[in-house]
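Quick question, first post here. What does this chain look like in 3D?
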Amino acid sequence: MALVVQKYGGSSVADANSVKRVAKRIAEAKRAGNDVVVVVSAMGDTTDELLDLAAQITPLPPQRELDILLTAGERISMSLLAMAITNLGVKAKSFTGQQAGVITDAVHGRARIVDVVPSRIRETIEKGQVAIVAGFQGVNTDTNDVTTLGRGGSDTTAVAIAAGLGADVCEIYTDVDGVFTADPRIVPTARKIDRVTYEEMLELAASGAKVLALRSVEYARRYAVPVHVRSSFSHATGTLVTGTYGNPIDPNAPAGDPGTDKEAAVEAPIISGVAHDRSEAKITVVGVPDVPGMAARIFEVVAAAGANIDMIVQNVSAAHTGLTDISFTLPEGDGPVTMAALKAVQGEIRYESLQFDDQIGKLSLIGAGMKSHPGVSAKLFAALRDAGINIEMISTSEIRISVVTRADSLDDAVRAVHSAFGLDSTEGEAVVYAGTGR
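> Answer (accepted):
Ran it through. Tokens below.
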């Protein structure tokens, strides 16, 4: 008997028929002899609809009240799913994040999980029942206030509960058949990846791949939780995310199982995939005095503004002026407050001007094998050159190369690089069942 944590996203429970379909799948897993815990997101676009409703009331809703409002979406889906499972003859009980023992810090809107105390969940599965947990939410024990975890929070909830219960696997059900070598909405010939390491998945998620939330992968790596990405719309084998290639979920399972293949490759492929991100903007601080401490002061201001920095480039200073330009990328939503913070210290830093550009796109090439294979950068840049795409910024790590291009060139760039590295599938086009890729 295995202990399985399953997570279903909003597109998987978008309406009553979808909820019934998911319930059938859960009941099958339970009848197969597994202990099953389910984490569920709000139905369809419920969270966005609630945000829009709040915006009609006030442009700046109090964060505490907004959290209480947004948690209603998951409460609806968890209770409906519990009803649907019970209707199939399998006992199920639903729990809010607070009832499930998800403890967070006190930050509303983007709280972080600090502990999981799943005593009520354990009691439920010990009674032979399916536990249904509302994702995306928890509670701060100091204030006793409900909190939300931010976008992708249900993924993080599922992995955290799997870690807290010592589950055998955390299955993330979405509307695509696994992790692909690129977004199948942009590259229909993208190939499904059978197995990927935590490190590669972290880079993919951080670079814009939306199939798994970044924080959930971080949590899975920290607690060595095997994650199996699958589609709730098919019975395809999906993608296994673990510590190493050839790391099985169950060493006693039969060979050939995609999650337990004893003959899995011991060496990582050169390239795992191509990710892209349209959500970033670029700020350039023009004419910064090229003296010690100026870069430090700029990024102290940026940090105090609460912005998360991604790529940074500093130009060589001009000898006759002693000035340099510093460019960095950040989430587009952090742009206005960061620009305001930098303008407030122009007299102190003595830079000439600021430039804000929200028409950029980031492309990232990821693969654990690239660190031992020369020529990857050359092939990447040649593919972009041949496609007539200009590069504005470059950033690298051991297993990633990222470039910034114009936003309107990003799709062409992804397709060009994907083909250049031989990632196109020969088995037909990938399927995005619900149209979102998440």
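The first helix runs from residue 16 to 31.
The longest strand covers residues 280-289.
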